Amino acid sequence: MFVCWGYAIGFDSITPNIYPHNTPPTLYIQFLHKRLTFLIGPEAQEPFFKASDDVLSQNEVYGFMKPVFGPGIVYDASKKNRQVQFQSMANGLRTARLKGYTAKIEKETRQYLSTWGDSGELDLFHALSELTILTSSRCLHGDDVRESLFKEVSELYHDLDQGLTPLTVFFPNAPTANHKKRNEARAKMVELFSKVIKNRRDNPNVKHSDGTDILSIFMDVKYKDGSAITDEQVTGLLIALLFAGQHTSCITSTWTSLFILNNPEIMKRIVAEQGDVFDSQPDADVDYKMVNEEMPLLHNSMKEALRLCPPLILLIRYALKDVKVKAAGKQYTIPKGDMVLISPSVGMRIPEVFKEPNKFDPDRFGPGREEDKSSPFAYMGFGGGMHSCMGQNFAFVQVKTILSVLFREFEMEMVSDTMPEIDYAAMVVGPKGDCRVRYKRRN
Known about the structure:
Blueprint: E1 7-10, E2 30-31, E3 34-40, H1 42-50, E4 56-57, H2 59-62, H3 66-69, H4 79-92, H5 95-113, E5 119-123, H6 124-140, H7 143-148, H8 150-162, H9 166-170, H10 177-202, H11 214-218, H12 231-261, H13 264-278, H14 288-293, H15 296-308, E6 315-319, E7 323-327, E8 330-334, E9 339-342, H16 344-347, H17 392-409, E10 410-414, E11 421-422, E12 431-432, E13 436-441
Parallel strand pairs: 1-3, 3-9
Antiparallel strand pairs: 2-3, 4-6, 5-13, 6-9, 7-8, 10-13, 11-12
Helix pairs in contact: 5-6, 5-17, 6-12, 8-10, 10-12, 12-15, 12-17
């Protein structure tokens, strides 16, 4: 059950199992030493997405990530340095590179699926989690890291990931066993990638990768004051990107698969769409144009899975100034010092915005309906505004490429008769319960 506290500004007729039906438009409760304000509904959410960092800031909220990413990275960086870091990330995720990543993702997917055999049963969430980090490593780290250091990197990432707990949000340096392993893992990760960077720089004539990996971009970053990025900061940016994409992509690919399998008519249409795209050649190579333009049902199924089960159920900012908000014909002032929150889990299940909001219906995004465009910031699958997820295009390519190969190679069915619950207790919210599927290789 999702619980809201603080001010709640916006709709007061939310689906009961998502938000209390009788909640008044404004509600004040103190949480520890902070006052929290929730914005609910497209109109109320608009200032959240449009405000600059000088008004609604991320740094004061997400500072607990510093022990994971390292000093001087993203939320711990100066404004100018953070802009340079984000620009380098954006350069690594632009369309020209996505075209090359598609082939890498397909290659990793086919190699991974070749180990499944002709039939069997497995936990789909676990399998797609493994596959996601394999494909991410190939694209982010490069061939030299993927081929020779992947096991070490994945083990260190696991320890970093386990070091992010609810306690971390409030006490990021609390002396816990998980935090100790997190700190050791980050130090080892810096040591490992420093060796990779040194080897690449000392041997420029040796082909370490095809040059499209994001590590190669980060190595060349220079800040506006002329200083070069450090090896520790390069590693921190790689960790930040892996954190941003690993959980969200594996969770989204799992939910998308399970929703499709749980809706036989949609499943038939997905298979037919794949047949149309590949013209009865299921082993044909996937290319960027196919994934980006010719799979609208698979694309909309992914969007719908994100609407129903967003991995991030809270987006938070800190009010550095008073913020004016309009909702339901009234105007409110959020006072300076408040924590301001929106919940994609709540906002994307509002019946006034999305018809039959609890139903899996990918056609709601299709021509003639386009419910996500009914009002600005109605759809928040990847956030919105100036801080919308810069990796969303990569996520679409990664998840759709994986699922395109998966649905063409295998017939699948869920073992359970019901969908798994949503694990709202997790830091990044995924499925809770039975994600097992039976599979059989197609002839």
